[in-house]
Write a structure and sequence with these properties.
Blueprint (H helix, E strand, L loop, with lengths): L9 H14 L3 H7 L1 E5 L7 E6 L7 E5 L8 E4 L3 E5 L4 E8 L7 E17 L3 E9 L4 E9 L7 E5 L8 E4 L3 E5 L9 E6 L7 E5 L8 E4 L3 E8 L3 E9 L7 E5 L9 E4 L3 E5 L2 E2 L2 E2 L2 E6 L7 E5 L8 E4 L7
Antiparallel strand pairs: 1-2, 1-25, 2-3, 4-5, 5-6, 6-7, 7-8, 8-9, 9-10, 11-12, 12-13, 13-14, 15-16, 16-17, 17-18, 19-20, 20-23, 21-22, 23-24
Length: about 325
């Protein structure tokens, strides 16, 4: 407990003690217990899995969504995770990340569709809607306040209608990269999460690709795998506070992956699921974000799946 001076009433001492235990968990302890949570998959799938990112091993069942989730997006604070289920719906669910159990309805996005991308700060979740229910790519960016419930609010737009892009964040800045807009894109753009407005040019990926996924700690963001001329094993990185082109980080470990999901705590990024050679996989791999190099095997999801999204309760957007 912190060292405060002065004479307090018993009730004041209790209030400070309660605040200390709730809000002042050491960064190392918070990172070691951080969970990666995986949502949905192709087909009629409402399954939620999780792992503890600082360990290795197979995923464990968390609970179920209120509906089916596919090509969805996830955002989170240190306590709550929110998924936009996509799968041609506008439904959002939330969970308490440190527990297990079924998800609860949160509210709705402005339109339904597919290829939702999520990123977040400690308080605000931002969703990119890549493809609407009418079958059109969009440039829509919307946001929620994670601690509340309710529908999304308009944030701004990406510079082009684009689907299947990646999202990641620091505590202040959100970054989108890659995707497909009638052709594969290498574009990286950024937003300031606490404000609203349109995305601004950041730089370029090393390889233009869709189905790329993003994960980050407070300073460095990784763009993992995807589909360029076929399944891709490329992993790029950026320094989020700057602008400029991405740099090669390494490769995915077990071969090229099209459309895995990705999440990170402050030390590790993980990718999970996706397709290899047209077949769904259940592999989970990890990277040490501060280094560069290839992925290492982590374990397996509860089933083979693609079209999964992921979140973590100690990612780069959390102070």
């Amino acid at each position: 407990m912190p060292n405060y001076n002065g004479v307090w009433s018993l009730s004041t001492q209790y209030q400070y003690a309660a605040t200390w235990s709730a809000d002042n968990v050491s960064p190392a302890a918070r990172d070691s217990s951080a969970r990666g949570v995986f949502s949905g998959a192709s087909g009629a799938n409402n399954v939620i899995d999780f792992v503890t990112i600082s360990t290795t091993g197979n995923a464990t069942d968390f609970g179920d969504h209120t509906g089916t989730a596919y090509l969805s997006g996830g955002v989170s604070s240190s306590t709550r995770g929110v998924f936009a289920l996509a799968n041609n719906t506008n439904v959002m669910d939330y969970i308490t990340v440190a527990s297990t159990g079924n998800a609860t309805d949160f509210g709705d996005t402005s339109v339904g569709g597919y290829w939702f991308t999520g990123l977040s700060s400690s308080t605000r979740g931002v969703f990119r809607i890549g493809y609407n229910a009418s079958g059109n790519d969009t440039n829509i960016i919307e946001y929620i306040t994670i601690a509340s419930t309710g529908n999304t609010t308009d944030f701004g737009n990406r510079s082009a209608n684009i689907r299947d892009d990646a999202g990641l964040a620091s505590t202040t800045r959100g970054v989108f990269g890659g995707g497909n807009a009638s052709a594969l894109k290498n574009t990286i753009e950024y937003i300031t999460i606490a404000s609203t407005g349109n995305a601004t040019d950041f730089g370029d990926l090393t390889v233009a690709r869709e189905s790329v996924k993003g994960a980050a700690n407070n300073t460095r963001g990784l763009f993992i795998a995807g589909n360029s001329s076929g399944d891709d094993n490329v992993v790029d990185y950026i320094t989020i506070a700057s602008t400029g082109n991405a740099t090669d980080f390494g490769d995915t470990g077990a071969g090229a992956i099209n459309g895995p999901c990705a999440a990170a705590n402050q030390t590790r990024a993980i990718d999970a699921g996706g397709e290899r050679g047209g077949s769904n996989v259940n592999t989970i791999e990890y990277f040490t974000i501060a280094n560069t190099g290839n992925a290492t095997d982590f374990g397996d999801l509860t089933a083979t799946k693609q079209g999964v999204s992921a979140l973590c309760n100690n990612h780069g957007g959390i102070a």
